[in-house]
Amino acid sequence: MSDLVFPIVFPLLAAAAILLLRRGAAILALAGVALSLAASLRLLGATASGDSAPLVLPGLPDLPLRLTAEPLTALFSVLVAAVATCVLIYSVGYMKRESGLPRFFALMSLFVAAMQALVLAGDWILVLVAWELIGLCSYLLIGFWFQRPEAANAASRAFLYTRSADLGLYIAIFILIGAAGTSQIAATLNVDGGTAVAAGLLLLLAAMGKSAQVPLQDWLMRAMAGPTPVSALLHSATLVAAGAILLIRVAPLLAPNVLLAIGLVGGITTVAAGLIALAERDLKRLLAASTASQYGLMLIAVGAGVPLAALLHLLAHAAIKSGLFLATGEFQHARGGTALRCLRGVGRDRRWTFLGFALAAMALVGAPPLSGFFSKDAVIAAALSAPSTAWLAPLALAGTLLTGAYLARALRMLWLEREEGESESRPVAGARWMGVGVWALVIPAVFLGLTFGPIEALLGLPGPEAHGTTAMLFGLLAAVVGLALGWLVPAPRLLGPFHPWAQSGLVIAGGLTFWIGRPAMAIAYGCLRLERGLYATVLSVGRGGLFIARGCGRVERGLYAAVLCTGRASLAVAHLVRVGDERRIDGLIFSLVAGVRGWGDRARSLQSGWIHHSLAISAVVTAVTLIILLSASLSF
């Protein structure tokens, strides 16, 4: 069997095993992602030595499915698996007192499998399948606490906004396949002319939805209603990264005017989201706005024609932002909330966690010699070397300055002395697991920059032109000024009259909630009322006709008879439909449920507690698995 399938198969099998066994969910999920990480590292080693080959699988007629093994896709696969492993280690402690653990860990495993399929896909059909799966999993994970109204609303909003932008991906894929005559991604990147421009703009629209770029950034802040491990995974190397990964992979397709549009979208987003983060009063929402801002910097690098700089910042940001979110989750458990006022002084109580948070924050600001210093220098150098440097460079520097300002503000609040009457810290259940997860991401956030040289050599992508010293000086100056302003000047004074607007999310004319969300929900409720009205009308036809006809003559009675027959016929049809629904469809569903419960009872009986019984079952399952793997490898 090809090595390409293992990064996908292991977390997928873990998800299936969790749903089937309903026991040991955390251990199964950890085993799945750890094996996926090992398989991804092996795949990266194979691609570095040139030993790996693409895998072609059956698909649509003349449009087979492909998994591709290139240094870029293998590197993305390692990134996804590494971050997911650290987040799931943390989740063991964070979710210790929560219910629904099998559902949580199964969804996380399925999400990792779908993301691995997305980054390893070599054709557009498989990209669409994986894109849909990560959208579904993100909806279910954001709404994990669906009984809370804010979580259900946040999941629906994320689904609605990203699905609207996903239309761009569908149309772009149709255009590319029609122009190239194949669904293979590498072949479609050779399209040029008007087709390339249209496809590039549509792919930008899809990336704006997933990566929360202006004006589609609002859903990302509201997605904080989900569990913190979900926020850490989605905001670092998976869901939100999907848009940037898409643009990095299709960089050879992008025409100059499309690159300018991408750079401007990213530049506007990095400033707008930075202002929103500076005005935020909740630490998780601040980090969410920061995520949109940092992906804006990546789009600036792509728009400048240097996707390598975007890739380096994506790698650094994945470790940095995951570490920040995980540390925030521990603060949340210590104080019972994530509002900055509630977290005042928590860093003095949780010093090791605060140290990890501070290191990750300084890496994101771009302090040397941390990883963000190297990646942000690459982005600023790319902006300085771009044909549209007059637009992109000031926006990149402004985004860097704002990064320093809002993170300095957060650090100051976390370290200030707790005032009398404010909430005290309490013991955190599962703190050891959470600490391991935090530091497993903080360490690469500090040292990952040392690997950028070998990564550049492995990928062979062109870097920015010679602006290294200038970019470093400008970047350091912007970071230091931002840190000073954020630490010394309160946000209301710093933003002035823009502060209330920034707190509202820079909403213009009601925002997308007014123009998209409310109309969509109104249409849905209208359809529901129409259906209920039609049903009530059918029921009332026969009953109301008799009263009207009593005072009429023969003609009227004849009309009444016709109406009565129609009403009775309608009621008869409705009765048949109702009987079919209740006795046939519902009966079938209830039978399936009873069958599943029966199989569950039988499966539960296998867990007898006898060691020899368990060993026998393990031996049988191992034998069957080996037979399947052997058969599959022989077929390939």
UniProtKB/TrEMBL annotation:
Domain NADH:quinone oxidoreductase/Mrp antiporter transmembrane: 121-401
Keyword Transmembrane attached: yes
Chief subcellular location: membrane
Transmembrane segments: 72-92, 104-122, 128-146, 167-187, 230-252, 258-279, 352-370, 390-408, 429-450, 470-489, 610-632
Protein location: Endomembrane system; Membrane
Membrane-topology annotation of the record: Multi-pass membrane protein
Keywords: Membrane, Transmembrane, Transmembrane helix
Residues in NADH-Ubiquinone oxidoreductase (complex I) chain 5 N-terminal domain copies: 63-105
InterPro entries, per the entry: ND/Mrp_TM, NU5C-like, Proton_antipo_N
Pfam family, one: Proton_antipo_N
Designated name of the protein: NADH-quinone oxidoreductase subunit L
